[in-house]
Amino acid sequence: MFEGSFVAIVTPFNDDGSLDDGKLKELIEFQIENGTHGIVPCGTTGESPTLTHDEHDHVVELTVETVEGRVPVIAGAGSNSTAEAVRLTQHAKAVGADGALVITPYYNKPTQNGLYAHFMHITDRVDIPVVIYNVPGRTGTDLQTSTLAKLATHQNIIGLKEATGQLSRASEAVNACNDGFTVLSGDDINTLPIMAVGGRGVISVLANVVPREVADMCNAFKTGDLQTAQQIHHQTMQLALDLFIDTNPIPVKTALQIMGKLNGRMRLPLAPMSDDTLEVLRQTMENTGLL
Q1: Any alpha helices (H) in the chain, and if so which ranges?
Q2: Which entry of 124, 217, 256, 257 is 20 to 30 Å from 279 by CA?
């Protein structure tokens, strides 16, 4: 259902810390003009942990309105509270999002039985395609492949954002789930390898900065042009790595600021890059042709 390059879009803020609606619209247009296949608002890259409930709802609504059906929108809708995740997913459905990205509950560290019950509770109550987001490095919880396989039998659970950092897990997910199940890379550096074992694309941080390249790589692989896909992978590899030289989304917001597309404003507890890491990022951007 979802394939190609889906950008995990940043949330722009004004200098006073409020939402910058105009800039969000500009960034969405920049993505669509450059071939991005879908938009994912209010994920980790969108600083969802520091958005109020009203702000979260507003960003999802504005994204859906701005996109106007031109590409799919997968709204971030996860929480470590099952009840809150239900509310966010219901809101995504109500405002016309095409899917919901639901992260494994963080901090409270549920068991595999708890994870299964969490996702079943949500998807039994909201009729919308759900992509499960598994990122143990952020959450402290790892959704095992055996649990995923059971969840994948639910008609509303249609995909996985795979961000364990272990390439074998993508292969396991592809093998364990039905043919219609979609595995998307959650780490840009692993997008091409994951597509090579049956994945269908990426929910990308890198695409915020080089949307055309990420989309072209996905398109090239889909059409069998492996040489072009490999070339783009290698050309963007160092940038993909350096966008995680500090905690995401600090580097990607900084890169967009360097490009003149953002003011670079983040919300605490995120803080600006150090001079050393900033110079590394700037040099990589120059080497990539962005400066």
Answers
A1: 21-33, 53-67, 82-94, 112-125, 136-139, 145-151, 167-176, 191-196, 211-222, 226-242, 250-258, 275-288
A2: 217
